[in-house]
Amino acid sequence: MLTPLLGEGLLTSHGDSWRAQREYTNPMFQRRRVEQFGGAIQRQAAQLVADWTSRDEKQPIRADHDLTGLTLQVVVTAILGGELGDIGEGFGRAVDAVNAAVSHGDPRDTPDTDVVRADFASFVTARQTIDRIVRLLIRARRFVGTDDSGLPDLLGVLLEHRTPAGEALSDRELRDQVMTMVMAGHETTAKALTWSLYLLSQHPSIAADVRIEVNRVCGDSPPTVAQLPELAMTRAVINEAMRLYPPIWVISRRAVSDDQLSDFDVPADSLVCVSPWLIHREADLWPDPTEFKPRRFVDIESPDPFTFLPFGGGPRLCIGRGFALMEAQLVLATLCRDVDFELWPGHEVLPEALVTLKPAEGMPMRVRRP
Length: 370
Description:
Elements: H1 2-6, H2 15-25, H3 31-35, H4 38-53, E1 61-62, H5 63-80, H6 88-102, H7 114-144, H8 154-160, H9 171-202, H10 204-218, H11 232-244, E2 251-254, E3 259-261, E4 264-266, E5 271-274, H12 276-280, H13 296-299, H14 321-338, E6 340-343, E7 351-353, E8 357-359, E9 364-368
Antiparallel strand pairs: 1-9, 2-5, 3-4, 6-9, 7-8
């Protein structure tokens, strides 16, 4: 289901095609290039704070929806150097429709129910909407050209790329990469932030620790990329939220040859699934595995290899990992310092495993200035 939406981009390609794509997309995520977007991310977070605190406290805010809108705008700014403006709401609705359909898996293996038929019908329209918007943004970016005043946005890197034969990427290749970066680059970060706010709302003493840390490090100024290494507790909260509620809750691969895992035979072409949800809650790997204890990520330099997989692992470790962690830390630091948030009274939060791990009935919250 992902390939019809994303095409043959970095996430869905394999073998030599994937290796070539990984090589030419790597420069997009160099540290100096990623960090140039820190100011824009913080401003988006500050705008969200202003929006939240201007609303009627008697009405809940939908933290999950608003954080998805924020991360979508951030990734569009970083990749395309522009803003969604009035089309952002329609784009967001289309993304929701796509996620609902993709969560059913292969249509050939899915029960034929009214809900499933409606979701798959919506998928076709939503895919056309997203595709049309992405192609429009690419055409606009081609027309504007690359800004010579500094590092180009991420699409600028793709537009400037040339193969060994001197050829530029085709419109289709550009579309597939941009679609992949936009879709994969905002949904997972939004879910990591949503679960972080939920867990902090249930543990106000830890939320207070984060606020104290941000005030100590940043004072009255907005958090900056340069200050992120000092925001250890803020980073630990994000990591612990991704441990308990990994946005990518399952990772699948095809066996390229016959193999054996422990006592299990794995025939060639078998689908092998690895579940970060299960690994992250394994008592042999994580003491008190179901408890929210961010300090475990402060007290250790890094978890043991392949025990913590929010971004996958091995050669296909998420290429946007650095960008996502920077964005999540800047946003969470801004929110925790500037607002108090609590889960809307009476709302029950249950995880729902779709393409990403989401709160089944959303995340309504009450926010106010501290």
